[in-house]
Amino acid sequence: MFLFAIAIQGCKKEEELFEDPYADAKQSLGIKISETELPTPSSGIAGTEVTFKITGVLPYKDKLSFMFNGEKGEVTEVTATTIKVKVPDAGSTGVTSIAIGDQLIIGPQFIVTGLIKTDITWKATAGANGFVSQFYEMVDGRALVIGQFNNFDNKGIITPINRIARTSIDGEYDRTFRTGRGANGALSKVIEIGGRFIIAGGFSGYNQRTENISNITSLFTNGAIDTVKIKTARKPSLTDTVTIKAFPKFNGGTNDFIGRLYAHQGKILATGNFRYYVKRTYDKPNYDFTRDTVILDSTEIRQIVRMNLDGSLDKTYRFNTTTNKGNIGANGQVDTYMHTDADKLEKLVVFGNFNTFDGQAAGRIIRLNANGTIDPTFNAGSGADNQIFSLIYNATTKKYMMTGSFTKYNGKTAIGIAMLNEDGTLDESFTAKALDGGYASFAKQLNSGLIVLSGGFKKYNNVTRNGFMILNSKGDLAAGYNTTGPFQGGLADAIETKSADGKKALLLIGTINRFDNQPANNIMRVTIE
Predict the structure, then answer these.
(1) pLDDT of residue 16
(2) What is the reported pLDDT for 3?
(3) Quick check: 83 and 65 in contact, CB under 8 A?
(4) Could you give the C-alpha distances from 371 to 153, 259, 348, 368, in angstroms and in order?
(5) Residue 294: what pLDDT?
(6) Strand, helix or coil at 10?
(7) Cis (ω within 30 of 0) for the bond into 21?
(8) Residue 376: which pLDDT band, with cuts at 50, 70 and 90?
(9) N or C, where is the chain less crowded by C-beta within 10 Å?
(10) CA distance 305 to 299
(11) Dihedral sign computed on CA atoms, order 157, 159, 164, 169
């Protein structure tokens, strides 16, 4: 006991030798911005003078900087109880703060108003509980919403809405769409062709058909899967009876995820990072005749495959009948974008992270003619010096917008964001400024010339832009369009449309967790006027 007490006393003495870890900490400045009294006014445009209730700031009036979401405002008056500040031109919605030396005092949120506002006429206010990949507008005024969700606008709480929903153009959920259990995996794209919907993505079952689907299938326009009844093969026996089973009518697919889907010359063009086209034989026995069987056949076709409307392989497009294989394709990851040129010819731009395509040098981007051959009129030169994340063409402006981790395009400076002419050359009238904090992952030019971007960036040209911004056609932040606050997530598309009361609007889809510093659920509409 005596020795134990000595040991404890020794520890105490040793503890007294430690230096105080807070000895050099800075003393509190005694400044307090009121958390209970809102600023006056609580929202306003750039240039608005705002009064904040504050105490303890008067001794520091000549040393402080007041910021709106990280951008410095002009202080016009400081008293013992208030501070007046003008909203800066680059200000955006977010928290306010005061910086004095290296100390920061956080204030209340201030809403900077501008030309972009959440559309109050959008019906699906609860959005989707997972990624939304496409909002497909139908000619009858309704739309299909697809992605990786199992609840839409809180209508799937009791019965899940698995990856596909039908809505009005304003987002109101349509319960008459007969999807049943829906898809058992993510959906990427839907097209309408031959009186059917074709859906694609990464799934193996739809509603009651829980197998024999390889990432693509066809639906009736009411949402039910299109099936066919087939007599299956069994071991010959006097006691056997004929077995008839229902299978998906669309008999074709791929061994991996389909990222894009296009109607192409009356057929179905699918692209992705798959390696094989697959199909099934239902009416032939397996090698030992022991049971009902499905035989899976595969043909090597990389990244781009065209199928007939029944799912059978179209061997007239990018296929070598001598080797019974598809063309070589890219030697790395690909994505695609298809559009129609001035001569109404379908052009498929292939981009991503590769340096050869069909055995030819390619700087991460090439364009294909309607017959699947490389288009020599697309003058990308040496292309991008690093990966291309996204590319979208605008038929009105006849420009491509692309994003990526590249710093050069065909040897010319293009840092992370670039505009291309229709012939694939760099449009040097657009100059992207420096991005801080991350890359842009999405860019789309609107018909007006404005450019919508999203990504992981925090600043653009040293101006705070938390993941979302709108540029003009020269690459500058568009005046009045960049007042929205923090954005979390990434866009899959920004669709030009109108609100229910006729205002110009954008339907934003993708993974959207916050917009304008408010919670968001992957699909929303904003007005842009």
Answers:
(1) 46
(2) 44
(3) no
(4) 42, 21, 10, 8
(5) 81
(6) helix
(7) no
(8) very high
(9) N
(10) 11
(11) negative
pLDDT band (50, 70, 90) for residue 242: low
Residue 353 has a pLDDT of: 98
Closest CA to 416 of 433, 397, 398: 433
Least confident of 34-38, 82-86, 438-442, 443-447: 34-38
First to last CA, the chain: 82
**What is the CA angle 188-409-452, rounded to 5?**
45
Amino acid at 473: S
Which tokens in the block code for residue 109? 């949120």
Cα-Cα-Cα-Cα dihedral sign, residues 143, 144, 147, 149: positive
Q: Is 58 helix (H, G, I), strand (E, B) or coil?
A: helix
Strands in 257-387 per DSSP E: 258-264, 267-272, 276-281, 295-300, 304-307, 319-320, 325-326, 333-340, 346-353, 356-357, 360-361, 365-368
CB distance 450 to 472 below 8 Å: yes
| Distant-in-sequence, close-in-space partners of 16: CB < 8 Å, separation ≥ 6 | none
Residues of the chain by 3-state class (helix, strand, coil), percent to 5: 5, 45, 50
Q: Which H helix or E strand runs over 78?
A: strand 71-78
pLDDT digits (tens, 9 = 90+) for 377-395: 999 999 999 999 999 999 9
Q: How far apart are CA 418 and CA 148, in angstroms?
A: 30
Q: What are the tokens at 397?
A: 């402006």
Hey, what are 92's tokens? 């955006």
Mean pLDDT of 416-437: 97
- With a cut of 90, say whether residue 15 has pLDDT above it: no
Question: pLDDT (tens digit, 9 = 90+) per residue, 18-75?
Answer: 454 434 445 568 899 988 899 999 999 999 999 999 999 999 999 999 999 999 999 9
Q: Is 7 helix (H, G, I), strand (E, B) or coil?
A: helix
Section 150-166 average pLDDT: 96
The span from the CA of 372 to the CA of 240, in Å, is 49
Please work out, in degrees rounded to the nearest 5, the angle formed at the alpha carbon of residue 351 by the alpha carbons of 138 and 342.
55
Q: How far apart are CA 135 and CA 510, in angstroms?
A: 10
363 and 384 Cβ atoms separated by less than 8 Å: yes
pLDDT at position 128 is 98
Separation CA 178–CA 175 (nearest Å): 8
The phi-psi region of residue 171 (left if phi > 0; otherwise alpha if psi is between -120 and 50; otherwise beta) is left
Q: Mean pLDDT over all residues of the chain?
A: 92
DSSP one-letter string for 467-487: SEEEE-TTSSBPTTS------
Measured at the CA of 350, the angle between CA 346 and CA 356, to 5 degrees, comes to 130
For residue 41, whether the previous peptide bond is cis, meaning omega lies within 30 degrees of 0, is yes
Please, how many CA atoms are within 13 Å of residue 470, restricted to the half-sphere of its CB? 19
The three-class DSSP label of residue 26 is coil
